[in-house]
Amino acid sequence: MKLRVCFLWHMHQPYYKDPETGSYILPWVRLHAIKDYAALPEIFRGHPGVRHTVNLVPSLLVQVRDYVENGAEDVFLSVSRKNSLDLTKEENEFLLRNFFSAYAPTMILPQPRYADLFRGHEAALRSLHRKNGGPGGYGASEYTDLATLFNLTWFHPMFREEDPELSRLWRKGSGYTEREKHYVLDHQIKVMGRVFDEYRKLSREDGGELSSSPMYHPILPLLIDNRSALDALPGAALPGLPFSWPADARIQLERGRKVFHDLFGADPSGLWPSEGSISPAALEMACETGFKWAATDEILLARAFGKSVRRDPGGIPIEPDWFYRPYAAVTKRGSIPVFFRDHHLSDLIGFEYSRWDAHDAANNFIHNLKGIYDRLTSGASGISDNEYVIPVILDGENAWEYFHDSGVTFLNVLLSKLDQLRPNIEFITLSDALAETGEVRELPTIPTGSWIDGTFHIWIGHQEDHSAWEMLSRARALLESKSMTSSKEGDEEPFDLQKARDYLLVAEGSDWCWWYGDDHYTPHGPEFDRLFRNNVKAAYKAMGVIPPDSIDIPIIKSDRIVQEKNLIPAPRSYIQPRIDGMVTSYFEWNSARKVVPAPGFGTMHRAGHVILSCFYYGFSVDEIFFRFDLDKVAVENVREIELEILFQEKSVKFNSILDPINGRFIYSFVKLDESRGALSSEESSRHLGTVRAAFVNVLELAIPFEALDCARDERLEFFVTIQIAESFGERWPIYGTFSAELPGTDFAERMWQA
Prior knowledge:
There is one protein chain. This protein is an alpha/beta fold. The chain contains 30 helices and 23 strands. Helix content is 41%, strand content 17%. Helix 1 (28-37) crosses helix 11 (178-192). The radius of gyration is 27 Å and the shape is globular. The N and C termini lie far apart (71 Å).
């Protein structure tokens, strides 16, 4: 029997150009281009036995082209280019608030100067707002170093190493000149210029494949008719106004194909519909516009068959025979094969392996593949040898910043090991897998939904989403009215109406509603909100209509932005819980702050059961307290759980191993030494004071202020990781850190005032 594994890496950015200024307001196209977009094809090229499909979203492609061919700039790049001596106070604040937008453990802390600037930036912000400055303020040299290091750290390590000057500047680490800073910025555009050639080479010479998505990454079923949300989730709350513009969905598909053809000289065969969103009407339209296959998530395959994909404790599907194959979605206008991603394997790479040793992670992935292969061969179903296909489909850009070397070691080890599994297990493109499949069986029914929970809740389920859809619906209806008037007069659609249509197509993208509601958080939420509203506003202006005043009112309310920055307020009063691993009394944690993990900050979303139900935070005069409550269902029959708290600014971590079944519990409080790694807990205890912890029903922890050297600090930064042995783990928050308020010098006074 031959098993085929197909990797699809999804590369996506929304359209960041602000129609009011003509500039890109966020830097992620540029920064990911110099990191993941240009680097991954080079890494893949070193392992020709493993071939890949890469999905390139057209809105990303046109922006890369704009930077390279037209000298486009984003706000971050413009501020970076400015001489630090000439920066205004507002620009200094912009640098301090935005130029630590990177995953600290892998992209900031490894550079000592960048780490120092990171630790001091809140004091620098406070100094900036004092009339006479004061302690902690940054000068021109700090701002030059900050702009240089931020732009340097986003380079993929391969690109820093291959260019002698970049390599020298990375080693230099501080004291940068304006000339050196400009070298870094100019070299970014040079690397961006390699992106298209890399993907042309991947598809033409390396045996890979390029697929595409609709132009601005809209949710196609919702454009065709937003009432399709009810098909995905009966009873779902809908906006007050309907939105049903199938013509827009078709334009999004056709324009995306044109951009792809212009850049790569051929039409894409494959379609990753935005967010894996499908419906009968969406797949019919994909068929009509020329796509030969589409892909989505296993949750929709399960819905089509009316049964779930059941897995054993190791994550191997118990009945893999029906799961691992493409199915034909038969529509009124033809049939289109659909692949269904294995979300377990995909999530291992996307979310899990960054915390593992590279060799252990690669071996685990191989173990999973062999387990699937063995189960398929033991099934003896009589199926054709060529029908089994495992699609591994994931974000191709956001996972790698969590690996210490942008995933280079992991990918090289994994791909080398995968190559050794041939010929029994082959690694080919989705089109090649389809060509080699003997029979593509018909899907029993075409489901409606997305890869996230099988619904469209994230994009249309919140009140903020409803406000956005209603705003878009009014503008789109007005455009239709004006367009019909023009068409009755026998004229071609005027240029101004074409521009209005362009702006609304951008506003139809999925990314704006990704950040509305409480499913996800980004500190750049106001920018996403402004981009959506400004595109709708620009459409009104292009139509010659004064935009409604309501468009200038943010959809994301400012009070929600403040609440969701992973800030943990001080407890209502001092607490003094008994550290015994049990909730001895309701009152011992009554005044603490309760934190319930949410998917939070980030563009990636993961399916699965949350292990950490909630945690509590508080303090006494001399100790900080935590209590962690585990989800009973998630840890049922689990023998080993590792929970760790990393206080990265203090170079300290708390580590614990919990055995809920046998009651075993061990822990350590470890100081991290940059030159030696972690000190032993015995060594650490001489410096870090007495830490107390206990676990029975809950994990309770007491850490002296002196152990964290934070008695004079205003906030404590940390994140939590929790992992079931040989299974999935979690990181809270997914991005960034929690920032917990400390008592300061006046907590007792504030407590009594409250």
